[in-house]
Design goal:
alpha+beta; disordered N terminus; 54% helix; extended; OB fold (Dihydrolipoamide Acetyltransferase, E2P)
Length: 481
Amino acid sequence: MQIKKVNFALFAGVFLAATVQAQQAVPVQVQALSTVLVEVESSAQAEVRSLNSSTLSSEVTAVVSEVLVDVGHEVHHGQRLLELDTSDYQLALAQAEANLEAGKAQKMQADARLKRARELSEKQYASADDLLARETELMTAAAQIQVQESNVALARHNLEKCHIVAPFDGAVDQRWAQVGAYVTHGSPLLSLVQTDRFELDARIPDELYARMIAARNFQSGMQFVRQLEFSLFDMRLHGAYDPDGGKTVQQVLDEVRAEVAVVMSPAFNRFQNGFSHIFAGGYAAGYYSYKWAEVLPADAYSKFEENGVFDRATGLQFLQNILEQGGSREPMELFVRFRGRIVFAVVTRYHGGAYVVFSRELNPEMKAVALSGSFASVIGGSAAAAVVFSRDVRKRAAVDPRVAQARARVERSSDPAERLARRARLEVLQAEVMLEKQAELAAEFDRIHSVERALEVGSLETLLEPSRLRPSLIEWLCERS
């Protein structure tokens, strides 16, 4: 551990020393942030609005007996605010409860009469009509009890309505109720404003709004060329870079920056060494999708700008060709149906089986091109051989003469130790042959799924060198706009 620490310290010292020697001293001035920070303040007229402003009304007819709050008082959820005279409703509850008890007694009497009638019927002292009458009497008594229980519940509910409580935390805004006043159903009593839930309604001054609109696209052009720089570098690195050629990766990036960058990066910048998007990030030769994802919606919206944002026909086309279709068809086919034109450029790979979506027979407005060196398959030959056609690879390896001979030697061996050793050599050989067959099948796959073949059969119009992609796209889109 001591040796590792010393080596690391030595390396760090050499690195720092080299860095110091490579750069000249630059005078700097240190200043507190608070002395240079500019705080921008703005003011606007605003109105605070409660999310709940409720008028509490009487749900029963009664006389106001007590008002416990007044205008301006703060109240809490569940707090008693006002009392109505409960005398009539207490009497109604007592009457309903008495009726319920009488009904229960009548049911008990009807039950006893039915029991007696059944005994007499068994001795043939009571007719069938008498028995039916007693059964009906019992059923009627049971139904009456249900009605009386509902009357009791209603009387209790009306009694509770005489106690007015706060439905939320708030403040009393208005008061109409007066002690001794006679109120009926729907008469307003108090008005409450909720104080713990509100919204702010402010109008931004026109001057500030104009400044915000003017600043919304600030630096957007710089951001655009930055993404363009990354996209072109990604394409050229995957499509045209030759590691055995005369250019370095840094030189490729410098050429792209010379074309599109507005502010050049410092010489010591090594952005490409950490550009993980195009390798570990899943964007291999596809970083341009960042800008493509902006092009399609902007192009779609331009149709509304051409015909009017609220044009009914354009809206119906968008509804029928995009929204209603969902995932039933390829997204690009739906876009072409709506917008009516497209330039389709293959920069790395595309799925040849789905190319009918972009067929010029279906859409004469489409122009289809590809970069030299790209492929007509969504996956490479190596991936296809290892995953999609793994069974074919195993079959080819199994019939290889070298594997067949090694397998025969294993079967002829009678000595257990020798047989085990030969089997181990067979497994190593099988793995080596599998890799060979996988490479063979991968090469066959890429030869078949090539953009050259797509050009021969008419799926593509032309092949472009990477340096011609951008000017060609601009030229074609200008022709079709």
